[in-house]
Amino acid sequence: MDKLHLDQHISRQYNADLEDLRTELLEMGGMVQEQIRDAISAISNADSDLARKVTTVEDEVDAREIALDEHCTLILARRQPAASDLRMVLAVSKITRDLERMGDEANKVATMAIALVDEGQSSQGYVELRHLAKSVLLMVDQMLNAFARFDVDAAMTVVREDKLVDREYKSSTRELITYMMEDPRSIGRVMNVMWALRSLERIGDHARNVAEHIIYLVKGLDVRHTSVSEMERQVSES
């Protein structure tokens, strides 16, 4: 397991600033993780009250994004970080954006949950949704653990899982399209499920983005827009 060794500075406040940045990001990540879990539970269990709770969290997640951006800007202006310290600040800034977008997608799932309750619950599509949700939640958990431990191996696991999530999403979509063709009366309800599946797939994409930022943070490698095999090669050789 790879570890990031942040420089220790004469200024205790500088050390504290960097550690606070890490802590604040993990707190935001935990909040978004709970938002995703609640959204999935709301749509799986036709719980409109829980879905509405998810939508109210959105403002707090946005506020966390703004606060973290301000913190990163202050460190850049006051400390002029270099090497691993600079990568830490830049990575946190990028990860924050992905976390906020994951929260946006969770909010969309909650909105679909409310629509499904209003239209009358249908069991069609919920098996596919629960299956995909399980995989996405695992990715998010692995992603946060990878950042907490600066663990490149865990980050690579998230990248690989994203490919599986993409395949699951495509398979589920094909099944639901077939069902709508067989029963046109179900189109409205099933479309809501499909939009929720799309949001879950997007959450997986953002989790992969975060994993790539973690690899950059620890290894100094920019692996964006790189195939999994090429990424594995670069990481193993660094």
TrEMBL record:
Protein's name in the database: Phosphate-specific transport system accessory protein PhoU
SUPFAM superfamilies with a match to the protein in the record: PhoU-like
InterPro entries, A to Z: PhoU, PhoU-like_sf, PhoU_dom
The keyword tRNA-binding appears for this protein: no
Gene name for this UniProt entry: phoU
Superkingdom to which the source organism belongs: Bacteria
Keyword Cell membrane applies: no
Family: Belongs to the PhoU family.
Record function comment: Plays a role in the regulation of phosphate uptake.
Pfam families: PhoU
Subunit structure comment from the entry: Homodimer.
Provenance organism: Sessilibacter corallicola
